[in-house]
Write a structure and sequence with these properties.
2 domains; Rossmann fold; 5-stranded parallel sheet; binds flavin-adenine dinucleotide; 38% strand; Elongation Factor Tu (Ef-tu), domain 3; 11 strands; 6-stranded antiparallel sheet; alpha/beta
Length: 218
């Protein structure tokens, strides 16, 4: 188990109570951008585990999360004060970039693992090939890490960013994905009500399940 001590916290959105939390860990973290760690705790004598994606490229013992207050454990984390410690295990998960063209669809705090991917591409100044990112949010203030993605669009050939407020995702997909074009890998992340219909959208249009990288938060 790795001990993670909170070093700073920043409120990203008052409306959705979304926080960015930065921790220093008891050992360096080795993970692929897009992966998550399991936060392990106890409640009424029973072990409880919650997953949180890391929002930055691997950076020694530093760990940064983006989470909203949803229920029991996320409230505990958001209420943690600097110096407070939690226990984590990991890394886990297959929500990582593959070779070849991709289209990434994220909603709300589902953007967290994508922020790590963009951070890694920016640090390496790596050509993104063809990577379209569509981020839907309920308001402008929920477009977390917008500056990072705009920087990626400016600096990395092939990186395209569409922030979408109060807009349906499917019509945008129809614009980007032309019939007959090579099928990009579809990366979908967010709450199930957002992610599941989009996965079906791709399946209905002939995407094989191996071409869909899917991560649901609930
Ligand atoms: C692979 C993976 C990665 C994840 N990464 C993140 C992350 O980077 N940031 C993050 O905020 N959460 C993330 N989650 C969700 C997180 O693990 C918890 O489920 C979430 O914080 C709710 O736990 P809780 O104890 O606060 O709420 P619970 O008491 O367990 O109640 C959860 C309820 O809140 C609703 N809900 C509202 N918002 C969320 C949300 N964001 N996630 C889950 N449920 C929600 C659910 O529908 C459910 O009804 C991830 C989940 C998975 C499986």
């Amino acid at each position: 188990m790795i001990a993670a001590t909170l070093t700073s916290k920043r409120l990203l959105s008052e409306a959705s109570q979304t926080w960015e939390l930065s921790f220093t860990c008891s050992e360096p973290l080795t993970y692929q951008p897009g992966q998550f760690y399991s936060f392990v705790t106890e409640r009424d004598g029973k072990q409880e585990v919650r997953a949180y994606s890391l929002t930055q490229a691997p950076d020694g013992d530093r760990m940064v999360l983006c989470l909203n207050r949803a229920g029991w454990y996320s409230n505990l984390l958001c209420d943690l004060e600097p110096g407070g410690t939690v226990q984590v295990q990991g890394p886990y998960g297959g929500f990582v970039l593959r070779e070849g063209p991709g289209i990434i669809l994220a909603d709300g705090v589902g953007i967290a693992p994508v922020a790590a991917m963009a951070d890694a591409l920016l640090r390496a100044q790596r050509n993104a090939g063809s990577l379209h990112l569509l981020h839907t949010a309920s308001s402008e203030s929920e477009l977390f890490y917008r500056e990072r993605f705009e920087q990626a669009e400016r600096e990395l050939a092939g990186f395209h960013y569409q922030p979408l407020v109060g807009v349906e995702m499917a019509p945008r997909l129809e614009e980007i994905l032309q019939p007959g074009d090579e099928k990009p890998t579809a990366y979908i992340v967010g709450l199930n009500a957002f992610a599941a219909p989009l996965r079906q959208w791709f399946k209905d249009r002939g995407w094989d399940r191996r071409q869909i990288v899917f991560e649901r938060y609930d």
